[in-house]
Every structure is written in C-alpha cells, then in structure tokens.
C-alpha cells in the first residue's frame, strides 16, 4: 500500500504539470491514464518493486528497466522516447547527478578494440535490418529533404569525397571504414586507391568480401588495424563516425596522427558526433549513462569548440565546417522505423535484450539530435599553414551537380 500511495502521489504530480498519452498498468491490475487522450504508450509494472524506476524516471533508470525486462513497454519507439523524456523533465532536475556531466575514460588499444567489437560485432545481418543496402552506419545527407535512406547515404559519401576533392590515382585512408561503402565508392567512382581500417572483425570480413565482389581488390585494401598503427602518407584521409571512440584527452593525439599520415598538400575530413554542451557534457537526464552502459562503452563526445582546438593542437587547420544535426535526426528516425518494422527478425538475430537496447537507443538518438543535445559536424582540414592541392577558393565546387550524381 505504501508503494502504491507513493506512485499515486507521483502520478498526480506529473499530471498536474503535463498531460501525456500514457497508460500505467500496475501489478494488481489497476490502470492509470495520464490524460483523457487514447494512450499511445503503455507501461506495465509486473511487480511493486518496479515502481522505483518510475519514481525516479531518469533516462538511464527507465532505459535499464526496459532493457532488463523489469518493466514492459508497448508503443512506437518515438512515442516511448517522447513520453519518457517528458516524465524525466516533469520529475527531475537537470542538474547535479543528472546534468550534462563530463566523464573521461582510459583509452588504449585493448580497451578500444573491445568497445568497438562490443558495438559492431553483433552480427552483420542484424545491422542489415535497419541500415540501407550499402550498410552505411553514419549520418546521411538529405540534399532536398525528401530522399530515401539509400539515396541520402550515397549523397553523403559523394558529399564527403567531393568536399575533399578526391582525384583519380590519389591515395585515400578511410579511418573506421565500416562495411566498406565509402572505400568502394571512392575507388569505383572517383578512381582513388584506398586503404580502409576497422577494429571490427565482422566489418573487416564483409567489407573485404564486398571489395572482391565489386572487382576492386587491386585498388582497395581493408585492414583490421588500429589507426595508431598506420604508416605511410596519403593524399586524402576520411574519418566518418569514428572519433567518438577516441576519448577527449586523446583528441590532439588523434589529429596529430592524421597530420602525420597526410601529404603536405593533402586534405582530410572528420565527420563525427559532438556534444552541444560547451563543457563537453553528456546528454541530460541520464541519457549518457545509459549509452555508456549498454551501447558505446568508453564513448566520449566533445563540443565543436573543443574539437577545433584539438585539431589545431594536432597541427591541422580547419578549412570548412558544416553542421548536419538535422540530417542525423532524420537518419536515426528512419533507422528506428526500420528496426521496429523488422522487430521479429532483429530479435531472432541478436536476442530480445539487444533488440531492446538498439530500439530505444536509435529513437533516443533521434530525439537528442532533434533537441540539439548532440550534433554532427563535418570538418574539412589540412596541415596548418599549407596550401592544399586542388582545393578551390570558394564552396561552390561542393555543390555543383550533386543532384545528378546518384
């Protein structure tokens, strides 16, 4: 009775501030609606002990309860995330332990490899359930805003390769090459000679297979290699969706390595997620805690200001900076719809728990990008004080004929 009284008082406190299309089903069969509207989300507490998650409804608490099966949630992921964030805002203070805290982690080759394999080596087929046919696991580029995912991902790759002016015969290093989409496009369409590196064994195997199938084994080499171990000089370097794993303290070193590998007149592109908190803080209300625990171990996001500072410390000069936050909000929204529409297959491939993690993670990312809690920047750069070969004076070259490219 004590728990139920506390829960009743909590519901009254929430509904006095906001009306939500939410139904709460208790362990004793009681049903509580948070508004007169038809519920879009139903949260069921199988036992009284599960009430503790709702009484302190941080994104970490509720996410953990859902993933671990301590509560049952029915509804579309986008509705779930909207309602959970509303519960957090109406109950918790966005400061103290639930603020946009900054946590740093120790990074070394062993820990970084383990973190990468935890996230990416689920199964290639699992990722195929929500990615585009080319399996591009990074922000798409919606040139007009109405493209389908496959088209937008190809436009993203072209946008990057056009920005850095890849020319036939040039050497390109793709740091964190994923399943090989950018490497294959760079070689087949732009005539580059490509080295792609990844720490994921699953990605390495499939990317190598795809390169061979495309008849490009003479122009593309896919390596299972840490970026810190790469040697040589490259005319162009791309890093897409990788530097989030580097660690805040190691960003100057990371950019210094890119500087070392880049030709004197070369051009590089860093494409990655950033924090919008000037102090490099995580998403609020425990969102960062959930991601660290279940999704990206040891992942750290820097503010764009910190990224540009670290880039300069690494001896690189930024030539162009573009914010694609809205593009990633749309990309992750599409991924969420895709995985939801193929839920049965995704659960079969990765298990119920792993499905739940990605289900709420993708929807949560879409919400976070939409709310400007996190962002996505593409930065074109080169060695500081040099004159990059073939880079025009204006931005016009980046956009000429893009619609005709796909």
UniProtKB/TrEMBL annotation:
<feature type="active site">
    <location>
        <position position="365"/>
    </location>
</feature>
<keyword id="KW-0808">Transferase</keyword>
<comment type="similarity">
    <text>Belongs to the CFA/CMAS family.</text>
</comment>
<dbReference type="Pfam" id="PF02353">
    <property type="entry name" value="CMAS"/>
</dbReference>
<dbReference type="InterPro" id="IPR057206">
    <property type="entry name" value="DUF7884"/>
</dbReference>
<dbReference type="InterPro" id="IPR029063">
    <property type="entry name" value="SAM-dependent_MTases_sf"/>
</dbReference>
<keyword id="KW-0489">Methyltransferase</keyword>
<dbReference type="InterPro" id="IPR050723">
    <property type="entry name" value="CFA/CMAS"/>
</dbReference>
<dbReference type="GO" id="GO:0008168">
    <property type="term" value="F:methyltransferase activity"/>
</dbReference>
<dbReference type="GO" id="GO:0008610">
    <property type="term" value="P:lipid biosynthetic process"/>
</dbReference>
<keyword id="KW-0949">S-adenosyl-L-methionine</keyword>
<dbReference type="GO" id="GO:0032259">
    <property type="term" value="P:methylation"/>
</dbReference>
<keyword id="KW-0443">Lipid metabolism</keyword>
<dbReference type="Pfam" id="PF25371">
    <property type="entry name" value="DUF7884"/>
</dbReference>
<dbReference type="InterPro" id="IPR003333">
    <property type="entry name" value="CMAS"/>
</dbReference>
<feature type="domain" description="DUF7884">
    <location>
        <begin position="15"/>
        <end position="93"/>
    </location>
</feature>
<protein>
    <submittedName>
        <fullName>Cyclopropane-fatty-acyl-phospholipid synthase</fullName>
    </submittedName>
</protein>
